[in-house]
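Might you be able to check the backbone structure tokens below? Thank you kindly.
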Amino acid sequence: MKHAISLLAFLCSCTIALGEDYDTQPLFAQLSAAIDSIPEYDAAHRKAIDGLKQRLSLASGNAAEEMRINNLIIDAYYKLSYDSTRAYLDRNLQLARELGDAGQTTEMLLRKARLYAKAGSYLEAVSMVQKLSEDSLNPNLRQLYYDACRDVYGEAGHYSTDADINAEYSRLAASYREKLHSELVHDTTSLDYLALQETRARNQSRYEDALMLNDRQMALVSPEEPRYSEIAFFRSWIYRNQGDRRMEKYWLLKSAIGDVRNSIKDQASLWTLANLLSEEGDVEWSYRLIRTSQDGLSYYNTPLRNLQSVNILSMIDHNYQLMTDHQNRQLRWSLILISILALLLLAAAVYVFLQMKRLRTAHAQLSEAHAQLSALNSKLSTFNFKLQTLNSQLSDSNRIKEVYIGRFLALCSAYMKKMDSFRSTVLKKEKSGQLADYLSAQRMREMKDKEVEELMDDFDTAFLNIIPTFVDDFNALLKPEGRITPPKEKVLTTELRIFALIRLGITDSSKIAEFLHYSVHTIYNYRSTVKNSALAARDEFEDQVRQIGNPV
């Protein structure tokens, strides 16, 4: 009957799996929302722990009840905080010894050994399990003992750099894994048995069998349970070994979402997913995940996990550097394009100037011909038609001039926005303490100020090449005490730049403020101050400015 129920659960899980849509985009959205909600998840988890601590305070004097509640707190802290888990394990170990409870003492020692192995304290973990005699153990503790020895020797052997020690510890881990299998074989439907069988199948490269065993585990747990995230993580391993990157990513996302929602800080899923996305070139997501993972690992506080994530962070940082280099190359090409456009604009300005000069000459000749040769009225009409055509061409030339200037300003402004966004992103990284050795805020500000200054210089030069008499003509519209003298040749002051933009047809204060990097209020004050010094009426002043440089 039990086997029939297990088979039915397995078939149901397969049916669900076959109907599931393995699109990762919704999972990325869920993971993003979960990361944004980490403070809320952590607060709820801490509230539950605080409730246990309140119950613990009421159990003072009752050692057995205190140990029972301590075990609940240890389970709550196990993947949240290494230091807190160890502290409550030590307290339970002390209580067990005070009560003379050999079974509880052994259980706490085994749990502590597994915690040490998890944290990378292999010497302490191996020493603790070696002090325990298998023959003297209570039969109820043998499963925990075999499981602890498998973890301790497996972890210590995996990270040992000595070949002999690695081989010996790997042999011991395999031996205890077989003993654990013997303990669990009486209940082939338990999660622990299925997980052990999955590990064995995975190690033997029997990946289809491993997936079937993983399916059976998933049928026994809810996606909201922490154990589901662990099962999903090991499922991603199976697909990774099969070379199926899409399914590996899918199950890493499922595991990461569960870890975040359950406030698990010792989460391998996040930094493993960050590494996978970095290999695919998704630098933005990989950096966000490794930063979130490091925040969690810092809270969990074990050197081993921090060390494991450092190598991934270094690789992601390298990829990020490559991406910024690529962006810088694109920016350089943009600057070259802007320079070319500026030269074209200058050429157009020269062409317009020559056309205006030719037009004035033609107009003078036409007036003289009209006075002297009234009999040639038909020819004059023809000439007037040609003149109208030239005027139309001149209007087109003026329009082209203003379009080029507008495009030049738009490109410059877009470039500055892009650089601002880039620097803002880098500054956020610096605030998180990840790139302090790469860039400093002071350097970023200096770069921004320099680029803004270069943009203003380019604008001043281009504008004064088009309307070289602008400063003199502008001052002629002002009272003597209100006239503005630029600090040097070919350079405009802020007030002159504002009215130069107005001359080009940009009258919206918000657009002017955006280009000059001032507030709208500041631009409004500058405009009002200058208009207060106008010779003519305030309302007519800007119309007069827009006529500067136009032929009489």
Observations:
- The longest helix spans residues 303-372.
- Residues 1-19 have pLDDT under 50 and may be disordered.
- DSSP finds 23 helices and no strands in the chain.
